[in-house]
Design brief:
Elements (H helix, E strand, L loop, with lengths): L11 H5 L4 E3 L3 E3 L9 E6 L3 E4 L5 E3 L2 E6 L7 E4 L2 E5 L14 E7 L4 E8 L13 E10 L2 E10 L8 E8 L2 E8 L4 E6 L1
Parallel strand pairs: 9-13
Antiparallel strand pairs: 1-2, 2-7, 3-6, 4-5, 4-7, 8-9, 10-11, 11-12, 12-15, 13-14
Length: about 190
Amino acid sequence: MRPLYYHYPQDELACDTESEFLVGDSLLSAPISEESATSRSVYLPAGSWFDYWSGNEYPGAGWSDIPAPLERWPLLVRGNSIIPSGPLMQYTDQRLTDPLTFTCYMAIDGLANYTLYEDDGATFAYQNGHFAQTAINCRVTGDIAVVEIEEQFDAYRPPREWYEIVVFAGGRVLKQRVKAGEGKTRVELR
């Protein structure tokens, strides 16, 4: 967790905003601190931002009123970011992360890259090269989203059969399931 001014030091409003914070460089969290609040005014730095929960897009470099029903708080994703997610688990080996979902929050004519690192989560085998890296690249041009997945499984292969690909772009939600373990995969979503 870090304050907005770490990533946006030239933005005076970001420097003055104390009730929001970043989780990594792609997620902006704006906790609710008022009883019975159903929305929150959130300062969004330059660029486009997406509601993590709904996929709605908001412009940056200003304030936006973000819905905040009881079951969720304002959590926003910087445009042209990829967020991996798996099933809810209470501990590492509770269940397989199959399918693994890559959600791409894309501005029109945008490009995003992400590399996921995985190991067995239980041993020190990663020190001997037993880990996997999965690189994902998403490019949106006009009405077409192209997603490329490149798996590097030298000494460790995650136990997974599928990837779910979700792309938010231009007010649309594009989805496709892709088989894992193919090495390199390219998918066009329209």
